[in-house]
Design goal:
It is built from 12 helices and 9 strands. The protein is of the alpha/beta class. The longest helix has 14 residues. It binds glutamine.
């Protein structure tokens, strides 16, 4: 079997499995399985593929046809230009979430960073916490998650990027102490009924616990807002990633709790992606 016939066989299988970019995915899988790059493939398409590489390639292809995300197959995803390990215990970092990090960094820019304590709730892979520390090294970052497996991955990611982050296993605030100048969170926010309509990659393979925001998707925003006051210094900032249609509802929840300077920030497509607010100065 030549590299080209292996690739074209794979593309057919991927298409049958309902995968759209079957040509580029088949190239990627072949290159990944054989440890070669696109240049090599283009120059050697008509060469025989070494038979010892068949099983590796077949195994990857079979998994991808079961709609396991590519990132779980390679075990990696880039976020804010940094490398992160991922597996089925953590949500794959999304480019959308970079907006949350950028907004947090913008707010941190004009502060006395040395004294700032920042908390990332529901850290998952740790992508938010690790990149905040990377791009604002003066701050002290704490990150928490309810999942021990996720925290283990987040720790590996902090180590991989050589970042000093304090990890705490905690059900939201249950095991956290002290106060913070900023709390950021990308909590689960998909309404339960919507989950079955998502792509198989997401609904079957990403951890439901990282997706499910209960009936209206707002469960974690409410829960966090119930207690955030006790963990934020007066004047402290609270920033959430939100679903595209949750800007109004989450802003309203913050308003009810007395937050000020509330703003929904749109992403590049013009959809609300982040809501931020400030805890009132007076206690
Ligand atoms: N904070 C993590 C991320 O942004 C995980 C989010 C989640 O599990 N809902 O990727």
């Amino acid at each position: 079997m030549t590299y080209r016939s292996a690739r074209s066989w794979a593309a057919d299988q991927l298409r049958e499995a309902g995968i759209e970019n079957e040509i580029s995915e088949s190239e990627f899988l072949l290159e990944y399985a054989c440890g070669v790059d696109l240049n090599f493939y283009l120059l050697h398409q008509t060469d025989e593929m070494p038979p010892e590489q068949y099983p590796v390639f077949r195994d990857l292809l079979e998994k991808r046809c079961r709609r396991i995300p590519l990132q779980y197959l390679t075990g990696e995803q880039e976020f804010m230009g940094l490398p992160f390990f991922v597996d089925g215990h953590v949500l794959i970092p999304r480019q959308d979430t970079e907006l949350l990090v950028e907004e947090a960094l913008r707010l941190l820019k004009d502060t006395e960073k040395q004294k700032m304590r920042v908390l990332d709730l529901c850290t998952g892979s740790g992508c938010i916490a690790v990149s905040l520390k990377k791009f604002c090294p003066e701050i002290a970052v704490t990150a928490s998650d309810i999942s021990a497996e996720a925290l283990c991955m987040a720790r590996k990611n902090a180590e991989r990027n050589d970042m000093d982050v304090l990890f705490v296993r905690s059900d939201l605030f249950s095991d956290l102490t002290g106060r913070f100048h900023m709390i950021v969170s990308n909590p689960p926010y998909i309404p339960t009924d919507i989950i079955p309509t998502l792509m198989p990659e997401v609904r079957i393979h990403e951890p439901w616990q990282a997706l499910d925001g209960s009936a209206d998707g707002l469960f974690f925003y409410r829960k966090i807002l119930e207690e955030a006051d006790r963990y934020l210094f007066p004047g402290g900032r609270l920033l959430f990633e939100i679903g595209y249609d949750q800007g109004g509802a989450v802003s309203e929840l913050m308003r009810e709790k007395g937050y000020t300077e509330i703003e929904a920030v749109p992403d590049l497509q013009g959809l609300d992606r982040v809501v931020k607010g400030r805890r009132t100065e007076h206690v």
